[in-house]
Automatic annotation (TrEMBL):
The modification N6-(pyridoxal phosphate)lysine is found at K297. It comes from Alkalibacillus silvisoli. Converts seryl-tRNA(Sec) to selenocysteinyl-tRNA(Sec) required for selenoprotein biosynthesis. This is L-seryl-tRNA(Sec) selenium transferase. Its cofactor is pyridoxal 5'-phosphate. It is found in: Cytoplasm. The lineage of its organism: Bacteria, Bacillati, Bacillota, Bacilli, Bacillales. Its EC number is 2.9.1.1.
Length: 466
């Protein structure tokens, strides 16, 4: 096609002062700029080939479009892939948005440890090598009543490690109703099979009885495992076996009773009326030999998994080869230690997850009304207060709905989907919900300091619609 011959060569485009400015400031290399120009050329080439009106392009228009496309590509190249966002969805532990936000004091500890040498594996008392597992074990044993504990990089790793260490080539009994699938299509049954244990399913999806476990025990059985169904909720014609009965059965048959708690509560939510989920201490008191749970869910810390329980089991795990494979780094320990310290001191309101979970409706309404007052001059968007329900999320407390408030934003000029995209493309992206054809921002998960950014986004969108 004749028009394709009008595309300037790369060496000529490199002379354009707008493109030169992109690499002369040192933020991007000359070679990378060339690659991005080539990408810009390919985009305009495809546009010419697919555009029935291609004959209307002039050489200058082609050149300008390549330059503008390249400048946009350069800007995208400079951007971080991992970016902070404002969570307006109302889901407190939003897996796609990074689950738990860690406490400001924990952030400071991470920064301090990241920029300094540390006592990660150094004992100040003896002047000799220490163990990183000793850094937080006393916190966990104090908060849970466990005899000992170990930290790994997430709860799936904890499950894998426990089964690999204790049940390889032997049988583990688990109820069919507890073979859950967690995020990303990972299934508990698959993790169990990968660990080398032989999975022995008992009962049915909705009903499992003690006699199901009793009949399944044989000379090859090593463990009874209970999996907390934290990401779904079954009601109606159901039955499951209490953990104290399973613990007693395991003890009678010299088996390990292990409970995968999933989220793992250290702070008792029963006193708030939000949930009757048991705390880890209760699970251990009722006979579990081992428990494991996530740190970045209801505990409100960094991504990690904790295994706690009887010392004889934890000591074996500490010596296992997987302990090194699955260990966490100094920054995770720093954030985890501070999160556990805040929990121990009763300063749970400083832990963002628990702060949002326990946030009063009065506070949420006040925040909403403050934003409505500040956005009164908006002309092309309709903004109204609304009542809504928040979720805990992250595969935890699926039956819990938290009454909340937020704003609904709509425009006669844009669809809700287009509006949500504009919020998402704000300088600090704002992730929203769409309900009944309107954009909804749930203020339970919006922080006070983020409200000004939401107001800026509303005003910027309003200006674009003039």
């Amino acid at each position: 096609m004749q028009l394709l011959r009008q595309i300037p060569p790369i060496h000529e485009l490199l002379k354009d002062e707008r493109i030169q400015a992109s690499f002369q400031n040192g933020q991007i290399s000359y070679e990378q700029t060339k690659k991005l120009i080539h990408e810009g050329i390919e985009q305009i080439r495809e546009q010419i080939l697919n555009n029935n009106q291609a004959h209307s392009f002039t050489r200058d228009e082609i050149r300008n479009q390549i330059v503008e496309t390249t400048i946009l590509l350069v800007a995208q190249y400079k951007m971080y892939n991992l970016q902070p966002v404002i969570n307006g969805t109302g889901t407190i532990l939003h897996t796609n948005l990074g689950r738990a936000r860690i406490a400001p004091k924990a952030v400071k500890r991470v920064v301090d440890m990241a920029k300094s040498y540390s006592t990660l594996e150094y004992d100040l008392h003896t002047g000799r090598r220490g163990s990183r597992q000793d850094l937080i074990e006393s916190y966990i044993t104090e908060l849970t009543g466990a005899e000992a504990a170990i930290v790994v990089n997430n709860n799936a790793a904890a499950v894998y490690m426990v089964l690999s260490a204790f049940t390889q080539n032997t049988e583990t009994i688990v109820s069919r109703g507890e073979l859950v699938e967690i995020g990303g299509s990972f299934r508990v049954s698959s993790i169990m099979e990968e660990s080398g244990t032989k999975l022995k399913e008992v009962g049915t999806t909705n009903k499992t009885h003690l006699f199901d476990y009793e009949q399944a025990i044989n000379e090859n059985t090593k463990m009874i495992m209970k999996v907390h169904t934290s990401n779904f909720y079954i009601s109606g014609f159901t039955s499951s076996v209490e953990r104290n009965a399973l613990a007693h059965l395991a003890q009678q048959n010299n088996l390990i009773y292990y409970e995968d708690l999933g989220s793992g509560l250290l702070y008792d939510l029963q006193q708030t009326g939000i949930s009757d989920e048991p705390v880890v201490r209760t699970v251990l008191d009722e006979g579990a030999g081992l428990v494991s749970f996530s740190v970045d869910k209801l505990l409100g810390g960094p991504q990690a998994g904790i295994i706690a329980g009887k010392k004889k089991y934890i000591d074996q795990l500490k010596k296992h080869q997987l302990a090194r494979v699955l260990r966490v780094d100094k920054m995770t320990y720093a954030a985890l230690e501070e999160t556990l310290r805040l929990t121990r001191m009763g300063e749970v309101d400083e832990i963002p997850t628990l702060h949002d979970l326990l946030k009063s409706q009065k506070q949420i309404i006040e925040d909403v009304q403050s934003l409505l007052e500040s956005s009164r001059n908006v002309q092309n968007l309709k903004i109204e207060q609304c009542e809504t329900e928040s979720k805990v999320g992250g595969g935890t407390l699926p039956e819990v709905k938290l009454k909340s408030y937020g704003i609904k934003v709509s425009s006669r000029l844009l669809t809700a989907r287009s509006l949500s995209e504009l919020f998402r493309k704000h300088i600090k992206p704002i992730i929203v919900r769409i309900e009944q054809g309107k954009v909804l921002v749930d203020f339970r998960t919006v922080q006070t300091e983020e409200q000004e950014e939401i107001l800026k986004a509303i005003k910027a969108i309003d200006t674009q619609l003039k």
